[in-house]
Amino acid sequence: MLKPKGNKFVHDTGSLLAGTPSLLIGENYTTPLNLKEVRDKESKNFLSIYIEKLKVVEPEAKFLRIVKEKSEELGENLSDADVAVLALALQLRATLLSDDYGVLNVASELGIPWKTVRTKGISERRKWVWYCPNCGRTFERHLRECPACGSPLRRRSISFGGPRDR
């Protein structure tokens, strides 16, 4: 587990819109992609209350690569905004604030400290595999159909331990 440096928090979009109390303390960060996810007027107005306490930072390419590789390894299908917020938390050695189970799964695997806003969070780490319901074969990476029989593949998770210390 990475040891957070000071009182640094990186917020995903859900955390920002929840009005997380950490927005009133410490250093608070998000990414340009997360701000772009805030579209409706009501949410933008709500966010304007906190915007001056928020540093908007683009994560470095090397951290984006690390997060993309780990999310692919786990079979998580993360958005660019999810990847960016994870990369920024890794880069800054900050605590990530999110309720997104896929994001928390990758954060846990990368040793990024995290806290939830409105949910309990993850109770175990998971890896996603694709399988053929027809012939039973499994695949580590996402394919649309089974190369052996042509059936559409489905996804299931495999648990491999509890979340790392938060």
UniProtKB/TrEMBL annotation:
It holds the Pfam family PIN_6. SUPFAM superfamilies: PIN domain-like. One of its GO terms (biological process) is maturation of SSU-rRNA. InterPro entries: NOB1 (IPR039907), PIN-like_dom_sf (IPR029060), PIN_dom (IPR002716), Ribonuclease_PIN (IPR033411). GO terms for molecular function: hydrolase activity; metal ion binding; RNA endonuclease activity. Keywords: Hydrolase, Metal-binding, Nuclease. Residues 7-105 form the PIN domain. It comes from Ignicoccus islandicus DSM 13165. One of its GO terms (cellular component) is preribosome, small subunit precursor. This is Nucleotide binding protein PINc.
